[in-house]
Amino acid sequence: MDSVAEESVEQIQAEVAGCFKCPRLVAWREASAANPPARFRGEPYWARPVPGFGDPRARLLIVGLAPAAHGGNRTGRVFTGDRSGDWLFRALHRAGFANQSLSRDRADGLNLIDCYVAAAVRCAPPDNKPLPEERRNCLPYLVREIRALTRLRVLVALGSIGWEAALAALGDNGRSVPSPRPRFGHGVGVDVAGFHLIGSYHPSPQNTNTGRLSEQALDGIFLEAAGLIRRLEPNVG
Length: 237
What we know:
Layout: H1 9-17, H2 23-34, E1 53-54, E2 60-64, H3 72-75, H4 83-94, E3 115-119, H5 132-148, E4 154-158, H6 160-172, E5 189-192, E6 195-200, H7 205-208, H8 215-232
Parallel strand pairs: 2-3, 2-4, 4-6
Antiparallel strand pairs: 1-3, 5-6
């Protein structure tokens, strides 16, 4: 087995946090920290790429879009300190994948159970719209995380960018992606050579405030993921 296959998620996390591959994103994450909204004025900002986090023995991987400029870019943990994370961690807690339902900062006691959370892009992008080359620059981190999460069985992609990143990362790990390429949709599921990928609308305010995504619908995604894990590994706790 080669050395890349043996690397840990902690090694990948450390490398992500020191990344400067995308000049536009470096400038934006630092500018966001230097000009915070009034409610965060005076708070220290992480203002670096935001690594994935969670259980290194996770069987569930969640792939989001990118850190929020005043969420993960501020707190240093993806989905922490923003409204999308409020929805996500409540759902994970109800499904048994988190020990608590609220996450405000990296020292708040949150632990993920059998679950790891990452993003397609690791720096906050302007208007939440990373460029294609920025997505390509970040993809190898997700490829390596999938390889390092040796017990992984189920992936949940939050939004179409997370969906495309998950499919591309599975393909780059030598998994045969179905053809034609599966299209994103809420509740869409696809088997990819030993893994199962589920799509979900992203729990962003533009989806939750408009009623496009309800808490019940988000709960359904993670209850499905939990059920799939039990069926795929019925004798594993």
